[in-house]
Structure formats: structure tokens, C-alpha cells
């Protein structure tokens, strides 16, 4: 049975880490070192707690930059851009092992959610420009015309080849790429001996090990629409990823209606299912990324059912009435302000 806790709260979107977790360095052999940059259309920050070797940070940020160049749907040199602008009649395209792997991860969650999450959403997502100075709802006719182009069943992966059954199918990995990249960044850091670090890719936080004081990292939970510093609770994370998806991450208001970036592939419009946000704890960040969007898309009941069917993942669902719903085992991991 799912447990519930009440309270008008919001969940982590900027993945702000509490000061106690990030600055409690007294007695440490090394002062933490950090590097930030605007990548993946968000602010990326990597902080190392057990080494002062800043060359490791340089390499980690460069790795992130390289993956952005590989998986972006807007950079003309990326493999995803090349897929989405392939010649008509192209039945298959060979891509790098990384691109094939992240597409397969996206297809996995498309299948698990029954298409509520769909990586072929690009024909619709490209109509919604949430970064525009004055964003607006696309014309209904535009949305209707592009609905038939969406369908994850139209693509598959075989080895390093992506196979297509429809010329108009296009891919948007925005809902899963950050998690995949965070996992690769973690591998890079661990290969260089890092055992205590936090990778923060906007709404995706991945903790390597624990704090050097021996305690788990504490990741802040943010109030919806509040300032990033306005936290109402936290989770303790050791070798865990914390990923959030919500209606207030990228959104705009038009005619009194809030339009957010999590689109329903069946309608072309943002989901309106009573949820405000979903936060997922998992070992792999790619799972947290895929599940946070998939569970949000499925809604509270079906999303909770999916989450409870998978071992080693936990989540919190926030409904628009301010109620907090925990998946099995999550309530013990969540520290709220009573």
C-alpha cells in the first residue's frame, strides 16, 4: 500500500544542495573544488570533496560538452540532428555506441509507460518554444498535423544502427539524456579515483559516495514556484541520483492557463493530470530521468504502480492540492519540515 504525507510543498527542480551538505568541510583533508558552466540548456555544476585536482573537473565538463554535441536535437553536427534530418527513404542509420544506448534507454521507458513517455515527441516539442521571449501556444492545426508523426514503435535499435519505419519520425532525448550523461560523468570521476562528489545537471543530481564526514549527502527539496533556496525538506543520498520533473520547470501562462513542457504524445498539449511534480531516487541517473517523466506522464495511480513494480527506485508525487504521495519505501528516505 502506498503511504502518503500531507503538506503544501514542491520538489527539487534546480537540485539545490543544502549548505550543510556542501560546505561542512571542517577537518577534511581537502577543500572541495567545483566547476560550473551552462550546458545542456541548464547550469551544470560538479563538486569534488576528496580531491583538489581541478584538472579532473576540466575533463568532466569537457565530457559533458562532448555528449551535448552528440545528443542535442538542435546542434547541426549532432547525431540526433542528423537522424532527424535524414534523407527520405532512409531505413537505417549507423550511430555511435553512446547514441544507440541512450536511444534504447529512451525506448525502454517509452515501452514501460505504454507511450505516455515517448522519445519521438520531437515533431510536437519543436512547436512549443518555452525559451522564447514571449512563448505562446501553437496553433491547433499545427499540433493536429504533427500528432501522426509521433510513435515510438516506428523506431528500433539493433547494435549501433537505428532503424526507421517512417520517414517523419524524429527523436527528442531531452527527457532522458541528462541522466545518461550524469552516469557517464560519474564513471569518468570514479575512474580517476574520486569517491566523494556531486554532479548537478539542473534538475538531475547524482551523488558519488557520501560526504567526507561519513554522512550521506543531503539534497534539498524546493517549494514549487519558490526561490531555489526555499527548501521544505530533503533526502539523504549516498551513491544515489535525485531527479525531478514538474510543471514549473519550463512553463508559461496564457489566458490564465499554465502550459508546461511535459507534453502528452496523444494530444500534443501539456499533461493536465493533477500532478505538480515527481521526484525519483535511483542508483542510475538515467533511470531517474526516464522514470520522473514517465511516472509524471502516467499520473498518480499508474505512475505509482509502475514505480512500485521496479526494485531499487523510490519516488515522491506531488498533486496540485498540495498532497505528497510516497512510493513504497520512500517515506523512510524523506525528511520533511513538520
Explain what the structure shows.
This protein is of the alpha+beta class and 338 residues long. It has 2 domains: 3-68 and 179-336, Roll (T-fold); 74-164, T-fold, CATH 1.10.3980.10. Helix content is 28%, strand content 27%. The protein is built from 9 helices and 17 strands. The chain has helices spanning 19-23, 54-71, 79-84, 97-112, 122-125, 140-147, 177-191, 285-298, 300-308, and strands spanning 3-6, 33-39, 42-48, 92-94, 155-158, 161-164, 196-201, 204-209, 217-222, 231-237, 241-246, 251-254, 257-260, 275-282, 313-319, 323-326, 334-336. The chain has a 9-stranded antiparallel sheet, with helices on one face. It has a 3-stranded antiparallel sheet with strand order 4-6-5, covered by helices on one side. Strand 2 and strand 3 (42-48) form a beta hairpin. Helix 2 (54-71) packs antiparallel against helix 7 (177-191), helix 7 (177-191) packs antiparallel against helix 8 and helix 8 packs antiparallel against helix 9. The longest helix has 18 residues, at 54-71. The relative contact order is 0.18. The model is unreliable at 1-28 (pLDDT under 50).
Tell me what the CATH architecture of the largest domain is.
Roll
Low-confidence stretches: 1-28
Number-wise, the strands total: 17
Question: Helical content, roughly?
Answer: 25-40%
DSSP summary: helix tally: 9
Domains counted in the coordinates: how many? 2
What CATH first level of the largest domain would be assigned? Alpha Beta
| SSE ordering | EHEEHHEHHHEEHEEEEEEEEHHEEE
Which structural class do you get from the secondary structure elements?
alpha+beta
Strand content: 25-35%
Could you tell me the mean pLDDT? 88
Biggest sheet strand order reads 1-16-15-14-11-8-7-3-2
CATH fold label of the largest domain: T-fold
Distance between the termini: 23 Å
Shape: globular
Let me know the largest β-sheet.
9 strands, antiparallel
Query: What's the CATH superfamily of the largest domain, by name?
Result: ApbE-like domains
